[in-house]
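Supplementary Note 3. Input sequence used for the single-chain structure prediction.
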Amino acid sequence: MVRNRDFYRIYSTFHRYIRNNFLKIGFLVIFAGLLSACENSATETKNKEEGKHVHFLYNFSTNSLDPHVDSSYVPLRAGITETLVRLDEKNLTIKPWLAESWEGEDGQHWTIKLREDVKFQNGKKMDAKAVKASLERALKESVAVKNALKINNIQADGYSLHITTTAPFPEFVSELVNPNVSIIDVTEGDIIHKPIGTGPFALESFTPGSKLELKRYNDYWDGASKLDSVTFSFNEDANARSLALKSGQVDIVYRPEVESLETLKAMDGIKVESTATFRVHQMTMNMQRKSLKDVNVRRAVDALIDRQKIVDTILLGHAEVAQGPFLPSLPFAPKYENSQMEKGADVAIKHLEKAGYKLKDGKMKKNGEPLKFTLLTYSARADLPLIAQVFQSDAKKIGIDVEIRQIDIPEEYMASNRDWDLATYSNLTAPRGDAGYYLNATYHPNGALNFSGASDPKLTAIIDKLNQTVNQEERATLSEQAANYINEHVINSFVLHPSTIVAYNEDKVKNWVTTRSEYYMITNKLDVK
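The predicted structure, written as discrete structure tokens, is reproduced below.
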């Protein structure tokens, strides 16, 4: 019998080989049909054995489940771990989760009252001592968490935490929404492969890069799930994800292939949801590279990006053209003037001429040296390599050679290597309903996602002031100032705001919610009909 992950690997290999060999399509259909029949039989048998079961297929794989450093946030998304507070996506505010309440009038000395009815999945109580140990481990393991939380001292007293930050930091509690601040029992031995959290599902087994098998945690504080088990599997091939749903191997698919959406919609029992999120696809610029130190070159790169064509042809309309990092509907998103949106090859050439470049013998040159870019991209988000190809094609028309380099884990590569100029990258910009997260992470010199190497004293000063401001109107003003500064100096370029697309078997799945934050997926409310 063929297992799920074997099927995905076999299909992905055949798909790449056969895509341009149309005479062999008949063989592919027969091959897929045979495997599908085999898989369906195995799935039905498994469901009968396990009771109420849901199989969720995600687009990013991971080899580690350590919630304090895992950049894919799988432990929280899979319902294993939880944070002290969570995002209220309807009102764009934070609300209690493992924490019951909090106070910190001066913005520096905080008291957090914990729920007293929470147990870890090993039966131990989640008291202040356990939470303190979890937070201190997160601070130790992750520089990004340390920089984000700015914690100086933590004291535990029964079910109360007393936390002092290094300076007044009014938005401290909102940073506790971060999945990398998930609360776990740190006394357990193998946190990488089997973290023990407080969520509705306990980890039964983990196959790195392939899948998690989860079972219901019966003593879950917010009410045990009606599901007996969940399979949370990975496949970074969008074609394979779509086929898996079509053939009934999985019940829910995150980010199916865009080209397959009409086919999925036409199938009986399949529901397709497209939800606007707090995400932006951006062109990250390595400002440590010689050519990109010139703002006119960066403006030329920005002008070359044909945003509307990308939205229409690659995302098939399931996105919104980006004017800046934040969705226009957010209260802190600037209102851009039309002059700021002038784009196209002619505009790019004018910027390059200001930088001293001229188009000669079909090549854009300065002092005899041709302008070249190395552009990073990654396939886990299927639209990013296509965006890279569109840019490569448009750049070639004005004499710029672009080498596209595929990487696996963008955060690791960009943080460790500086041998690149540009990168197509997707970033959550307001997952807590506030601009502070993105601005600190991406543009502050200490930011965990500051891959551009931005270190601008004026921008840093705006961000530091934002971090100490409580009033929401003042915060919105400062956020606008920062976003305008970023656009004016082209510290990264923004392409589009993609919708999150999820497809699932609505004849079976009950209470699935596609969230804007992309944090909360496998919950205790998820059920089957």
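Residues 1-41, 43-48 have pLDDT under 50 and may be disordered. The first strand starts at residue 53 and ends at 58.
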